[in-house]
Design a protein that fits this description.
The protein is an alpha/beta fold. It has 13 helices and twelve strands. The strands form two sheets. It has an eight-stranded mixed sheet with strand order 5-6-8-7-9-12-10-11, with helices on both faces. The protein has a four-stranded antiparallel sheet with strand order 2-3-1-4. Helix 5 packs parallel to helix 6 and helix 6 packs across helix 13. The structure holds 2-acetamido-2-deoxy-beta-D-glucopyranose (NAG) (3 copies) and zinc ion. The site of one 2-acetamido-2-deoxy-beta-D-glucopyranose (NAG) has 2 residues, from loops. Its cofactor is Zn(2+).
Length: about 425
């Protein structure tokens, strides 16, 4: 009986990731701005899926479905864009990475029971249990909010952290994570920020000066789906957007905000990963993020949305590459963040690059959170592309043994950004 159970378990493990048979990923390294833009211009035609964003003289990693591989390679050769195969067999690589998660659990179990949301890639319930526990244990500084439910009915949970329950009109810093479901390194950086503001407050000035809102998993349906079914799922899981939505669920949450909606870097085809939805804010998960922005609009000074990969700090305008009136300050605070991260980083990690979204990665995106929040008047808005795959050619996702490192350095970036902004904007 036990043997049968074991056999079935092994079979189930091996059956995982079947859908990625034949998919490949490539390393591409554009050596001129023209090449970078050319790559960007082929996004929709080849359904290119940049797991790690390319930048000028900086390699990206792009996932390509079997039916587009020949055409894509031909295009790269014609344009002389240097490239190599990154992962030949995605399914095998994902199986390997599942093993790494188990190993990491063994490593951390003796330290903290293996259940901390910032020590490993954890299922949603572990993250939610952490959020609930923090709210329960620290009622004087922490308020749990769960006003809305996801499309599939999961609570959308965020924490408000404040010395005086948001009473004294301090500037607000808002950080969200997990909007893109598969970007598993994102939620740990947000739960780690909670840890550093509540459980291990080594920078008390940050609570003196600011009130905080931390929303670790903005897309819990998608996040759960990446754990139970499809590792590379990016979108929400809504099925009410289009006649095809039952076969092809979901909307790209970071294309669903109401700014220049569905004009660039998006698709009208619900079966693609950048489907913008039937209308702005069609997704309840996106409305939940927007509700926070609207509620604290007059006080919000910094908004950061955590994504991966690339070791990049990106700021508006991402849809057309023009600079905002606040570009100088956006850049200055962004540089403070990037420099602080680099100071805390590992030699094998990429140095951070800071810049306008479109100009840095070579393609534009409309309906993105960073642009939207800025368009509503939030002075400092950033997309972080966290470090990940691509030091060396090994691996697809960041090895879980580096999660803690990424959390520590990313928090260092947030701290430096908050202090830099405080010095520029005064106490308010
Ligand atoms: C690519 O390189 C070849 C050989 O050096 C050259 O003839 C061709 O014009 C180049 N193509 C582009 C688009 O730069
Ligand atoms: C608290 O944080 C500091 C700095 O990040 C670290 O050195 C220290 O070990 C932490 N303490 C605990 C109890 O986690
Ligand atoms: C980073 O390190 C450099 C060199 O040690 C130092 O000059 C700089 O102030 C540091 N920056 C931050 C933001 O910590
Ligand atoms: Zn993302």
């Amino acid at each position: 009986m036990r043997l049968l159970a074991l056999v079935m378990l092994v079979a189930a493990v091996n059956a995982k990731h079947e859908i990625y048979k034949g998919w490949k990923s490539y390393i591409v390294k554009p050596e001129s701005y023209e090449q970078l833009e050319k790559l960007g211009s082929k996004l929709l035609e080849f359904e290119l899926d940049f797991v790690k964003n390319a930048a000028l003289d900086r390699e990206g990693i792009v996932l390509v479905k079997p039916e587009y591989q020949a055409g894509f390679l031909k295009f790269l050769s014609e344009e002389n864009i240097s490239h190599t195969v990154h992962v030949e067999d995605l399914k095998a690589q994902f199986d390997l990475e599942d093993q790494e998660i188990l190993k990491q659990e063994q490593r951390t179990r003796s330290i903290n029971g293996g259940r901390m949301p910032y020590d490993n890639y954890q299922p949603l319930n572990v993250i939610y249990e952490y959020i609930d526990r923090i709210a329960e244990q620290y009622p004087e500084t922490v308020t749990l909010v769960e006003n809305l439910r996801s499309f599939e009915g999961r609570p959308l949970k965020y924490l408000k952290i404040s010395r005086d329950n948001f009473q004294s009109n301090k500037p607000v810093i808002f950080i969200d994570g997990g909007m893109h479901a598969r970007e598993w390194i994102s939620p740990p950086t947000v739960t780690y920020a909670i840890h550093k503001l509540v459980e291990n407050l080594t920078e008390p000035d940050l609570l003196e000066r600011y009130d905080w809102i931390l929303f670790p998993v903005a897309n819990p349906d998608g996040y759960s789906f990446t754990h139970t079914s499809t590792r590379m799922w990016r979108k929400t899981r809504s099925t009410d957007q289009h006649a095809l939505s039952r076969q092809c669920p979901g909307v790209d949450g970071n294309r669903n905000f109401d700014f220049a909606w569905n004009t660039v870097g998006t698709s009208n085809n619900p079966c693609t990963d950048t489907y913008a939805g039937s209308r702005p804010f069609s997704e309840v998960e996106v409305r939940a993020v927007n509700a926070v922005i609207e509620e604290y609009l007059d006080r919000m000074l910094i908004y950061i949305t955590m994504h991966s990969y690339g070791s990049l700090i990106l700021y508006p305008w991402g849809h057309d590459g023009s600079l905002s009136q606040n570009a100088l300050t956006l850049h200055r605070v962004g540089i403070a963040m990037g420099e602080a991260i680099d100071n805390l980083s590992l030699p094998s990690f990429r140095r951070y690059r800071v810049g306008n979204s479109l100009l840095t990665i070579g393609y534009g995106a409309s309906g993105a959170a960073e642009d939207y929040a800025h368009s509503r008047g939030v002075p400092l808005t950033y997309t972080y592309e966290l470090p990940g795959t691509g030091f060396g050619t090994q691996g697809f996702h960041l090895n879980p043994r580096y999660i803690h490192q990424v959390c520590i350095e990313t928090w260092g970036g947030v701290v430096a950004g908050a202090r830099s902004a405080a010095s520029i904007y005064g106490k308010k």
